[in-house]
Amino acid sequence: MDDNNNNNDAAAVEDNRAFVETKIERIKSENPKERLFSITFDNFEELPSDKGQGAISSTFSCFGNQWGIQLYPGGHSESLTGMVAVFLERCSEGRELAIQHSFKFIGDVERTIRLGESVFAVSDSYGWYDVLPRSEIIDDGFLENGALTLYVGIQLEEFIPKNPASSIMLNMFNDENSADVVFEICEHQKSDSESDRKRAKTSTEKLYYAHRLILQHHSAELSALCATSDGMTPIIITDVKPEVFRHLLCYVYGGDISDDDFAVHEKDFINAADKYGVTNLKLEAEVWYVNNTEITIDNVIDNLLYADAMNCALLKEAVMDFIVENKEEVMQRVSFQDVPGDVCKDLLAAVSRRDEKDSSGDDGEDETTDVEMTYSKMRIRDLRQRLDAKGLGLDIDGSREALIANLKEHS
């Protein structure tokens, strides 16, 4: 959830606060103007939880100033009962700074809240009195090994020219003058006759120019193809439609793909991106496909087999959710004869999520404190997001088991 409502935005009124040693890491932001940091408070449940009792983080440097986070696990004195409060504090002197900032919390759901422009003088703090219920933070997957990690984004409200590197890169796409490798994309006419196939001429032959250095850093598969070509001898590709390869190559250079193009080439993008190692495009195409495809009794197995063959964990999860939601009809009408046995864990994860949802109103202690159990119940989008948030360039394409193993290894 992304909350831009400013009714809860406020400058913090002084309360009782104590310093708490915290782990702070700089993380790459998708917004080039934003500086993004992860702030980890260990043993969240052991922090003072009385209303008005705050925890002050270690300081960190951003835009030539020192900053800190004020966290009130039991709420600020101005907070609603049971709500957690959080504020960004400027800890260094200097001229006033116009700042936009946001906080993000990642649990079973993502909670992002943004504040418009605030003018920070020394010791000023701005944030929110009512961010999340304390009980929700504890019970709904926001804690990892007992620690709460929040993400703060800070953006300086001054005119800063955009770094031209991305536009320079995109302008190099298909530039014959500077390219040092060329791909020839051939799409053959279809024919039922063997002799016709032998004599078939290509109905489409497209040349696309690229740069070995750029491909080397974006796709090991495309880079390996470049090694098979001397100079500008064309590299022949016959298993991808010309327009699909053009979009894939443009994506490597920083280009975007429109919804209309995704609608026309949904599976083509998944297949091509998977084969040629353009992972982020594959995942974006998979998200588009899942959100725009209705899973039915008639196509559930086809989608399951496709998801398993292409290692599309998000699509597989959507199929499993459908099976659990429609288990009686599926049992009567669907054959699982050709389904691989390794989908059982994905099915159990879907059942576990459904059972947890059905019992969400029950009282009692949370039984998912074990890290592996917590990960096993998470949705694919959350597993991928947690890996990506670590900013280590970790592989976020893979099965549920691979994502969980990667998370555990880097926790």
Keywords:
single chain; 411 residues; alpha+beta; seven-stranded mixed sheet; 15 helices; 36% helix; 26% strand
Q: Biggest sheet, in brief?
A: 7 strands, mixed
Mean pLDDT: 85
The helix fraction, in percent, is 25-40%
Count of helical stretches? 15
**How many individual β-strands?**
17
Structural class: alpha+beta
Large-scale geometry: flat
Unreliable segments (pLDDT under 50, ≥5 consecutive)?
Answer: 4-8, 195-202, 361-369
Distance from first to last alpha carbon: 25 Å
Radius of gyration (CA) equals 26 Å
Strand content: 25-35%
User: What oligomeric arrangement do these chains adopt?
Assistant: single chain
Summarize the helices and strands and which ones pair or pack.
Layout: E1 2-3, E2 9-11, E3 16-19, E4 23-27, E5 34-41, E6 53-56, E7 60-62, E8 65-72, E9 83-90, E10 97-106, E11 110-120, E12 125-133, H1 134-139, E13 143-144, E14 147-156, H2 165-171, E15 181-188, H3 194-199, E16 202-210, H4 212-218, H5 220-226, E17 235-237, H6 242-252, H7 259-275, H8 279-292, H9 300-309, H10 313-325, H11 327-333, H12 344-358, H13 371-377, H14 380-389, H15 400-409
Helix pairs in contact: 4-5, 7-8, 9-10, 10-12, 13-15, 14-15
In short:
Helix content is 36%, strand content 26%.
What this model shows, in words?
This protein starts with a strand and ends with a helix. About 5% of the residues have low confidence. Strands 1, 4, 5, 10, 11, 13 and 14 form a 7-stranded mixed beta sheet that branches. Strands 2, 3, 6, 7, 8, 9 and 12 form a 7-stranded mixed beta sheet that branches. The protein is built from 15 helices and 17 strands. A hairpin with a 3-residue loop joins strand 10 and strand 11. With 411 residues, the chain is of the alpha+beta class. The chain is flat.
